[in-house]
Amino acid sequence: MKIVINQSRIEMIRVLRNPYYLFWSLAMPIVFYIVFTKIFDVETADKEVWAAHYLMSMTVFSVMGSSIMTMGIRLVEERSQGWTRYMRVTPLSDFQYFSAKMFGQTVVHVCSIVVIFTAGILFNGVRLSIFEWLFSASWILLASLPFLAIGSLVGTMKRVDTAIGISNVLYLLLAVTGGLWMPIDVLPKVMQNISMWLPAYHFGNGAWEIVRGQLPELQNILILVGYLVVFMVLSMYIRRKQDVV
Amino acid sequence: MESIVEIKKLTKKFKKEKAVDNASFSIQKGEIVAILGPNGAGKTTTMSMMLGLLHPTEGETLLFGMDPRERAVREKIGVMLQEVSLMDTIKVREIIQLFRSYYPNPLSMEELIRLTGLKKEELNKRTEKLSGGQKRRVGFALALVGNPDLLFFDEPTVGMDITARKLFWDTINELAAKGKTIIFSTHYLQEADDISDRIILFHEGRVIADAEPDLIKKQLTKQSVSFITEHSISEKMFLQEAFVTDVFKKDERVHVITDDTDAVLQTIFTSNLDVSDIRVEKGRLDDAFSQLVDTEKDVS
User: Fold this and answer.
1) To the nearest whole angstrom, how far is the Cα of B249 from the nearest Cα of chain A?
2) A245 vs B86: CB contact, 8 Å cut-off?
3) Which residue of A has its CA nearest to B139?
4) Phi, psi of A66 (to 5 degrees)
5) Which residues pair with B210 in a beta bridge?
């Protein structure tokens, strides 16, 4: 257990020192948040609800990004450089290595959530009940699991360049179709129908419901769990195939 | 004697090519063994199988009598692979501390610094900012961190400068004196000769010789006594001796090929031959090596 804690601590330090993380996961969402709630006057009935809604969008956007990209790309890097191979001759087991990465990543997510929520309070005076703050934060943490699974799927790729390219495109596509940048109603009807079957919308919607004083819809949970299972099985299958040398 | 490494009929095929072909040997506690061979001889593949990083096509490896992938084994071994890659965005000190936490009885930071020659300012550097030589030093430290009983080094001195190389071998000798078992691969013949007390020679995936360096040399290299003389010397006098295989004259020097140079010298002195500038030449392992490889080729 001590090993896993140590390992997680190091993984955490590494993510926080990564300039890409700071840019994509903290700076970008906060800048977007300010731009779309302060500078552009988005026509909404209720400015306060919009400020809270978009705060959730940006937090989801941030956590989704580091789930897909940070861990996935790092896994590819470590494998292509021979580090993963080297870890196999140390007493650290594959399981410990992997769970430490997941754990470290989760702590980083907590950090992102706290920073972006704080930005929301500072810039727009977003006010939610303590229960709503905690509930939405926990939702964002838990519902990020399918995206971590996508990250580990990205992590099975052979080349770092491919992993970076594909995960970026995937990330932005998911963000747009999930209604994270702009509410989903502004998308064409066809796109909206497709989005209903993609995971990002459901990730966001859970949090949007919470800040409106409701519970995430059952549909949100079911679809996210479905994606989690599919991506986990797929990435475990590929990993196993790669291991047989 | 306690057998620490047990390799049984190890074979590895990649597609149709046999990278390692039916290699068997065992290594006892405290031995320093060089796995020697030209590039592509199967040294790295053998080492990877010994470490459980590659599955053998046939045969098996046991370390301390167990599968090399067992945690109990991993706690007792230290490894430096070729081309050390390090986890990035962390400082050298952090990675060493992290590794110290993996093992039940790690060496202290001070001890590691002393053994590997890591410098204070290097400890505070991020791993991705290190030069090749510095990375090797960190790799060496990571191999030693768990105070292992059995050490593996795959081509350890490639890319080290002379000072680094000397410190590396000094440390290896110090560890050997403490009873550690050391296995290293190299294609530097001199290194194998200087450091090891046993050489396992690989060629085209097979073990073609396995003996102490002197024995390999003695068996497989020619030795000779040569001298200058103004008198004509009866070649027969030498040839009738059992230990002489050939006598010839070349560039004013008489060469006596033998497997016992001392006996030749004795003959020269007891017969009171009028000779000068006597030279005794023993074949170096380089010769043994190319010879071994050549004979092997002839056979196959």
Assistant:
1) 57
2) no
3) A86
4) -70, -25
5) B200
Structural domains present in chain B: 3-212 (3.40.50.300), 222-282 (3.30.70.980)
pLDDT of the residue at A145: 94
Using one digit for the tens of pLDDT, what is the confidence trace for A140-193? 999 999 999 999 999 999 899 999 999 999 999 999 999 998 888 888 899 899
Q: Is A142 on the interface with B (CB under 8 A)?
A: no
Whether B52 sits inside 8 A of A88 (CB atoms) is: yes
B51 with A245: Cβ contact below 8 A: no
Find, in chain B, the residue whose alpha carbon is nearest to that of A89: B74
Distance CA B296, CA B275 (A): 39
Query: pLDDT (tens digit, 9 = 90+) per residue, A19-67?
Result: 888 888 899 999 999 998 887 766 666 788 999 999 999 999 999 999 9
Point out which residues pair with B6 in neighbouring strands: B26, B62
Contacts A17 to B, Cβ<8 Å: 89-90
Task: Name the token pair of B282.
Answer: 């023993």
Residue A175 is predicted with a pLDDT of 93
* DSSP class per residue in A76-96: HHHHHTTHHHHHTTSS--HHH
Q: With beta carbons less than 8 A apart as the criterion, state whether B43 and B184 touch.
A: no
pLDDT surpassing 60 at residue B297? no
Pairing of strands B198-203, B32-36: parallel
Please give the DSSP secondary-structure letter assigned to residue A215: P
Strands B32-36 and B181-186: parallel
Interval A185-216: pLDDT, tens: 888 899 899 999 999 999 999 999 999 999 99
- Taking each continuous run of H as one helix and of E as one strand, the counts in chain A are 13, 0
pLDDT band at A128 (very low <50, low <70, confident <90, very high): very high
Put simply, whether B237 touches A (Cβ < 8 Å) is no
